[in-house]
Amino acid sequence: MCLLFKDFRIDVCSLIHCLFTGIGSHFVYENDPNLPYFALGYSVYDIYTAVKNNKKDFIFHGILYASLFFYAINRNLFSACNMALTMNTSTIFLNNLYIQKMYRYDIHYPRLFKFSSLLFVLVFIYFRLILFPMNSYNYFKYNYDYLDDTSWYVLLTGSVSITILNLWWVLFIIKKYISLIYN
Fold it and tell me: CA quadruple 158, 161, 164, 169: dihedral positive or negative?
């Protein structure tokens, strides 16, 4: 991992990636290929760090991320990639928590840290469990006639898989948030 500080987990590559794709995906032209290519490059790093840290859910995420983006880019389905990249908005808030933890906001400014944690939980739920599934549904609904059967099934399987993974993660996140509040 490309860590900013040895004692704290601030992954600079992840931070740059989520800032670039999380914010950029809201402003970029729907079929712009730049963000999907950038994200595909990052997905290799994502797999590497997941394997290095032996995190099975992140290994699954990285492989899913890389394979779906590779497929979509190969088929010029850039709008599907850019739509999925909006989920990285929540990762900006996660990295904000890592930065606050580095400066010990959890100890020196506990209310601010708890509020920032709540913002992360809410943004995660909104972008990954509400907006992404809703946008995916609309994408499939309005592009059904334009997608070949293979692309339709690959993208649908990917969307469902990442949503299930996000459900898994939100349970972990909420459990961690509740323990933060009651400690």
Answer: negative
